[in-house]
Amino acid sequence: MNVSGVKTVTEFILLNFPCSREVQVLLFMLFFVSYILTLMGNGAIVCAVKLDNRLHTPMYTLLANFSFLEICYINTTVPNMLRNFLSEAKTISFTACFLQFYFFFSMGTTETFLLPLMAFDRYLAICRPLHYPTIMSSHLCMNLVALCWVIAFLCYPVPIYFITQLPFCGPNTIDHFVCDPGPLLALSCIPTPGIELSCSILSSLIIFITLFFILWSYTLVLRAVLSVPSAAGKRKAFSTCGSHLVVVSLFYGTLMVMYIRPTSGNPAGIQKIITLFYSSVTPLVNPLIYSLRNKDMKAALKKIQICTKISQRE
């Protein structure tokens, strides 16, 4: 096929979750409630850290940034997904599709950078407690957070640019609820093994390098904790790290299934379920994981709740 200069596709159709109208409405209500709860849960953590002076430490600063990232992350996909549940057309423009692609993957990459930073913070707090205040200062913490965001947002412009230059002559139907590289590359008029392999290698490098750093940090933490003589000290250390390890397991587990091998090798249904899990489910449960296992966070949230009730009475 001669495809030189051909790019007739100006919009894509995101199939979302094909089902009857009644089920679409039910799914809309379910995901809408989940979306609101995610915003409220992560927003509460951000407000708690900002308003409670006791939480103005690197550990909680990282947690607040992580919760803010989760708010941004779900807003790259969920609003459009909700719109598609009630829309007949389910279309997204060519430009909007690749913008969603860019922000979705940039936010996800930022998360893979913030999680190792949080692990490093726990390593310093447990293994280097005397030097922790001087090493992990608030200034350094904010600089490292900013670096995570900047590097993450610089990872995907080049791959996305090359994908936008591919000829898309139709069909333009993406069997997904987000503009994911696998379904997008499958719509190209020409084979794209090089780009697909490059995307897979880039994702694999990001995932494995950051995961290795997390495992290395917690190996040192575990060795330090096991050397603590008191059982109370061990429980406190494990409690401090437990929430983070649960979040890491949920996030990296789904990412590795999805992006380690070329994405077109996964069936469409599996892609949707896995993407839905790490893009919508984990941002929903993360506030519960962190707040329920952290006494300081629970106290700060109760303080906000009390202040809110008082202001409402006034």
UniProtKB/TrEMBL annotation:
SUPFAM superfamilies: Family A G protein-coupled receptor-like. One of its GO terms (molecular function) is G protein-coupled receptor activity. It is found in: Cell membrane. Residues 41-290 form the G-protein coupled receptors family 1 profile domain. The chain crosses the membrane at residues 25-48, 60-78, 98-120, 140-163, 201-225, 237-261, 273-292. Keywords: Cell membrane, Disulfide bond, G-protein coupled receptor, Glycoprotein, Membrane, Olfaction, Receptor, Sensory transduction, Transducer, Transmembrane, Transmembrane helix. Pfam families: 7tm_4. It is a multi-pass membrane protein. One of its GO terms (cellular component) is plasma membrane. PROSITE patterns: G_PROTEIN_RECEP_F1_1 (PS00237), G_PROTEIN_RECEP_F1_2 (PS50262). Putative odorant or sperm cell receptor. Belongs to the G-protein coupled receptor 1 family. This is Olfactory receptor.
